[in-house]
Structure formats: C-alpha cells, structure tokens
Amino acid sequence: MALAARLWRFLPWGRRVFPGPWLSRGVAGSRGLCCTRRLRGSEVMGNLGAFKRSLLFSALPYLGFEAYQVFSQAAMVHATAKVFRVEEILEQADYLYESGETEKLYQLLTQYKESEDAELLWRLARASRDIAQLSGTSEEEKKLLVYEALEYAKRALEKNESSFAAHKWYAICISDVGDYEGIKAKIANAYIIKEHFEKAIELNPKDATSIHLMGIWCYTFAEMPWYQRRIAKVLFATPPSSTYEE
C-alpha cells in the first residue's frame, strides 16, 4: 500500500493537474463541433476508484518482490548468525579439548547432539569416546558411550564425506565397537577401518593421528599369530593382512 501511494503521487491525477470537470465526449455532427457534458460526481469518483484498484493490482508484483527481498535478507542474516554460533561452539570445544576438560567438553557438545553440522558431530563422537575411556566410567556406561560415539561419527560422515576427521573417528569408533561384537565382527570391521583411515590420510596427508593409526593397523595384522590367521581364513576367504614394511 505504501508503494501504491508513492506511485499515485507521481501520476498526473495524483498531482491534481487534470483539466477539470469538462471532458470531451467526442465529435458530433458534420460541422465538427465538440459536444461536451459535465460528468456527475459519482462517475468521476467511480472512474478514480477503478483506476486506483487497477494501480493497486499492478503494484502487487512489486510489493511481492519487496517482500521477497526482505525475507531473503532476513534469511541471510539468520544463516550468518547460525554460522557464527557454530564457529563459537567449535572454538569452545577445541579449547576444552586442549585443556583436558573431558567432562565439560562432553556436557557442552551433548547440547547439540541433534545438530546437522559434521564438525560438531565428530567432536561429539570423540568426546563420547573419551568419557568412555575415563577410569570412573562403569563398564555398562562405557558400552553405551562407545555405541553412542559410533552413531555420532556415522552421522558426521553422512553430513560431510569430505571431512578427514569424520572418516578418522568413524574408523576409531568401529574399532571400539568390535570389542563387544566378537572376533568375526572385529575381523570384518578391519576392512572398513582400513578404508576410512586411508581416506582420512588422502583428505589430509599431514594428519599425524591418521597416519599413526594406519601404522598400528598394519602392525597388528603383520604380527598376527599363526593360529589367529588360521581362524581368520576359516571365517573369511581373504582375511586382512599386512607387512612390517607397510
């Protein structure tokens, strides 16, 4: 409506410069005399009312565009604020992790366990695993936390497959779960673990932790005793293997 009012002021009738009540009705007779009549007030107001309605309808697309711009700008501001909020949480989380505040870190990140952000989720997986490793954590709680950590790592990977940290912590958490699922599951998971460590190294060749853990994986299967190799061959046609050179 405000836009329609502004447009109205810029039109000739809006500035009241129309000729007055005498309007040409048309040519009449062979002499070309102009036949005129005075319009009634209701006709003038009716015509103006119709014009205003027409102007209003023509202005609606512009009003819609203005509304679209306002909503778009509001959405951008909200998205930007959300990004800044996530970055602030990540900074706090990294500070607590470096400070060794494991419990505080876990309490902070569990507030955002429904997040869709991969960076938050893999950090939560790490924090859950770290809580599970504390001496004061009971065996029952430890098991719950290990599976909880795997779920967070899995979601982080689903949200961002280009995150080296998501691949790394997914591999670590799968390895932990193997302790509760028996030798067959542990050997089967070894293939998955290796795959994700290799992917983490590919995405970030400078990450020392991924390289170290890949080395541990190779060493574990390089020094596997003969009886374990035999069991592995019974369970799998081609069990995982490695060499000391690798």
UniProtKB/TrEMBL annotation:
Which Pfam families has this protein been placed in? RMD1-3 (PF21033)
Write out the annotated subcellular location.
Cytoplasm, Cytoskeleton, Spindle pole
Q: List, alphabetically, the InterPro entries matched.
A: RMD1-3_a_helical_rpt (IPR049039), TPR-like_helical_dom_sf (IPR011990)
Which GO MF term does the entry hold, naming one?
A: microtubule binding
The taxonomy runs: Eukaryota, Metazoa, Chordata, Craniata, Vertebrata
| Source species | Neovison vison (American mink)
Stretches assigned to coiled coil: none
> What is the top-level taxon of the source organism?
Eukaryota
User: PANTHER family, from UniProt?
Assistant: REGULATOR OF MICROTUBULE DYNAMICS PROTEIN, REGULATOR OF MICROTUBULE DYNAMICS PROTEIN 1
- Protein name per the record: Regulator of microtubule dynamics protein 1
